[in-house]
Write a structure and sequence with these properties.
The protein is built from twelve helices and 28 strands. The strands form five sheets. Strands 22, 23, 24, 25, 26, 27 and 28 form a seven-stranded antiparallel β-sheet that branches. The chain has a six-stranded antiparallel β-barrel with strand order 1-2-3-6-5-4. The protein is α+β, with helices and mostly antiparallel strands. The protein is elongated, with a radius of gyration of 28 Å. Strand 4 and strand 5 form a beta hairpin.
Length: 470
């Protein structure tokens, strides 16, 4: 900016004077913008480029499966030898200790094969996979080398929304590219996982693209605060939303991988609603949405043994507040099997204390989808819900106890996002065994209240709320 002599500003027209003062006011803000050049120079050596080479099925493999075996008799048709096809994946990572431990994403190395780590000074090392964890998307590698330039690790719990951060990685194989932005949000759940994410992701607007996966997210002190893991995109490229694994969460996984080569987590045994929404919270007697709302308590689990119920809202774990449903899986998962925890639970419009002894988190179970069916039917009433009984075979396949199937939805029900195909399992906390129960429960709703509906949709349970008309 060109300096303006004070005497010229005083003698200038009012508008010119105001513009000059505005430009002067911008100068301090511009001076505070970070200079990333020194930060990059000081930290780039700790970042690595990772390639994974594996052998897959050759070009003729699909034909051999599709065509009769006799076609491949050389006396009939001399097919050439089927050469395996080599596949190469690539990503980023960073050194966490001078003796050769390297951190990256699980999805970078999940295909298996030979892993090569290339450093900024162009040295290459063959890497051994120490262990990987798909749920957190963390993988730990080891190379045989000493005195490597390890990254400084920060404290992701100290991050604040609005802080500057930057990434170094290899998007689209453009090695050691640098991008910068700010922290947009904290504690995000994984894309598409809702209340089932075991990682409280850091959201930023740092440009991340394929190949950045596994690379470090740095703060302005040159400390790693996250591992770049996911982007939200409708095009396949960066669109302003990047998700990174907090380094504190990643290092908890690293310690288990070093010790056992695998990760074990505590298990409670509940399925959660992604809400609750304001209307559902109000129907439960809460003054605002808070906590983790249970939609289902799984059989033969610590939750069932402790007496937790569908419709309970878990407000805290060992005194630590649960703000969102997505907080709970991470809070439980970081604890050990056999550990006792104290839950504060909202039930029947009051708080109660529940003690639970956690089990070991099992492998993911398969889910079922709901089908349409025919049967006895209740026509839409004031709520706009037309329902029918759930056929016996569907009850068995979905392992649900009763309920009614939504055949049509309009008006208040449609506005509350209750749609055809949903199975209503509870109305205002009352279990629905069939059409009679549903009819009775709806008739007993009070005008003006927000009524909660527990529904089964596809492969998950969730709550919706309808305000009963006056």
């Amino acid at each position: 900016m060109i300096p303006i002599p004070l005497r010229q500003m005083v003698g200038a027209a009012p508008t010119t004077f105001i513009i000059a003062i505005f430009l002067l006011a911008l100068a301090p803000a511009q001076a505070k913008l970070p200079d990333f050049a020194d930060l990059v120079e000081d930290n780039v050596d700790s970042v690595v480029h990772i390639t994974v080479i594996s052998e897959g099925e050759g070009m003729l493999g699909g034909l051999r499966r599709a065509l009769p075996e006799e076609w491949f008799d050389r006396r009939i048709f001399p097919w050439p030898e089927d050469e395996p096809r080599r596949r190469q994946g690539q990503g980023s990572g960073f050194i966490i200790s001078a003796d050769g431990y390297v951190l990256t994403n699980n999805h970078v190395v999940a295909s298996g094969g030979d892993i090569t780590v290339r450093m900024h000074d162009r040295r290459e090392f063959k890497a051994e996979l120490v262990g990987a964890d798909a749920r957190s998307d963390v993988a730990l590698l080891k190379v045989e080398a000493d005195d490597l330039p390890a990254a400084k690790l920060g404290d992701s719990d100290e991050l604040r929304v609005g802080e500057w951060v930057f990434a170094i990685g290899s998007p689209f194989n453009f090695e050691y590219s640098v991008t910068a932005g700010i922290v947009s949000a904290l504690g995000r759940s994984s894309l598409g996982s809702g209340a089932n994410s075991f990682v409280p992701f850091i959201q930023s607007d740092v440009a991340i693209n394929p190949g950045n996966s596994g690379g470090p997210l740095f703060d302005l002190d040159g400390r790693v605060v996250g591992i770049n893991s996911q982007i939200f995109s409708r095009s396949g490229g960066f669109q302003g939303i990047s998700l990174s694994i907090p380094i504190d969460a990643a290092m908890e996984v690293v310690e288990m991988l070093k010790a056992d080569g695998s990760v074990s987590r505590g298990f409670l045994g509940v399925r959660l609603d992604s809400g609750p929404s304001f209307e559902v919270a109000k129907s439960l007697g809460l003054d605002r949405p808070m906590g983790a709302l249970i939609t289902e308590v799984l059989a033969d689990t610590p939750a069932e043994e402790a007496g937790l119920k569908s419709g309970d809202v878990i407000l805290s774990v060992d005194g630590e507040d649960v703000d969102l449903s997505s907080d709970l899986p991470f809070m439980i998962g970081r604890r050990k099997s056999g550990e006792n925890i104290d839950l504060k639970v909202w039930r029947d419009r009051r708080e109660i204390d529940v003690e639970v002894t956690l089990a070991l988190l099992p492998d993911d179970e398969g889910q079922s989808d709901a089908d349409d069916s025919e049967g006895s039917e209740l026509k839409p009433g004031a709520l706009g819900l037309g329902v029918t009984s759930v056929p016996h075979e569907l009850v068995e396949r979905l392992d649900v106890d009763g309920g009614v199937l939504v055949r049509s939805s309009a008006g208040l029900a449609r506005s509350a996002d209750i749609v055809p195909g949903d199975i209503i399992l509870q109305v205002q906390g009352q279990a629905i065994d069939g059409l009679d129960d549903f009819s009775s429960a709806v008739e007993n709703l009070e005008a003006g209240e927000h009524a909660s509906f527990l529904i089964l949709r596809g492969n998950f349970r969730t709550y919706r709320a309808i305000r009963v008309p006056d």
